[in-house]
Amino acid sequence: SAYQGSFIQPMIADAFDQSFCGPNCVFPIDGCDIVTQTFTVRFRTQIDLVAGDYTFTIGSAGAARLIISGGELASPVLAVNDYTPHYPYRTTSNATPVTLLGGTYFLDLEFYEDFGENRVSFSYTFSPLPVTWHYFNGYYADGRTFLEWHTASEVDNQGFEVEHSTNGTHFANIGWVEGHGTTTEPHEYEFVHNQPVLGWNYYRLKQIDFDGGYEYSRLIPVFADDLPGVEIYPNPLKTDRLFLSRINTDQPVQVTLTNMLGQDPFELTQDPLMPTCFVIPHRLAPGLYHVRIRMGDAVHTRKLIIE
Fold first, then answer.
1. CA 98 – CA 116 distance, rounded (Å)
2. What is the Rg, in whole angstroms, of the alpha carbon atoms belonging to the chain?
3. What is the pLDDT of residues 232-253, one digit of tens each?
4. Is this prediction's pTM over 0.85?
5. How do the domains of the chain map onto residue ranges?
6. How far apart are the C-alpha atoms of 79 and 69, rounded to whole Å?
7. Which of the residues 54, 137, 198, 291 has an alpha carbon 20 to 30 A from that of 48?
8. pLDDT of res. 67
9. CATH for the 16-128 domain, from 2.60.120.1560, 3.40.30.10, 2.60.120.430, 2.60.200.30
10. Burial level of 2, CB count in 10 A (0-12/13-18/19+)?
């Protein structure tokens, strides 16, 4: 089929129900007007959505499917698929809610008509997430574990129980951090565990609502040892070479860099002529990063500012 042109589809309360002009009629568009017999339309909208669990509903007499992209989505997601030709008109929704973290998204509704009813519709409902996490990370230094987490938004958030485990299975409550109730503003939190055990420590957050509802964060491991802490320099970093001190170069050393969300990890290259020097393989955007240093069973995490 050939592209004929476009038109603007108004939405009321983020929904629409379009029947064009009826069967076998001329529907005006900004290119060549179309006759409503066996045609294909692609509706696209750019929309700002808050964090939540979304149920999308599309209706059609013909075939239709909804694709979501943008926001935190690394690739387009087929949210609702009813692209098998059918008659009469029917509606279909995604069986499992689509969790979106909030942001700007593109919604593409593709519609194919071959029956004459010429009807397609779109709507959605959502339930806001209690807490939208930006990240949750931890590191060991000076005999203590430092936990940090950021939220993008909160709904009825009373606060966080901080839980600790030595085996990743059985957890104990070791502290409490007050939340910010309901807010669309980002917030930063931190907690210090003064008595981690030597070796692996596991942490998670139990986010609790005012009504008693709760959800858990992801689990993060932090390794504690009684060796002198590894240092990184220069910090801030202005070149592609990062140096480490207080490391044992007789054993393999792995250095990994991630952003503050724990995303986009990549490994630095150790200089064979200078084992304490590690090279960043490509230029990075200025900002705050996490450096993860692994030596045998010991893992150290440090913050690095790149300018």
1. 32
2. 26
3. 888 888 899 999 887 766 678 8
4. no
5. 16-128, 131-224, 231-306
6. 10
7. 137
8. 96
9. 2.60.120.1560
10. exposed
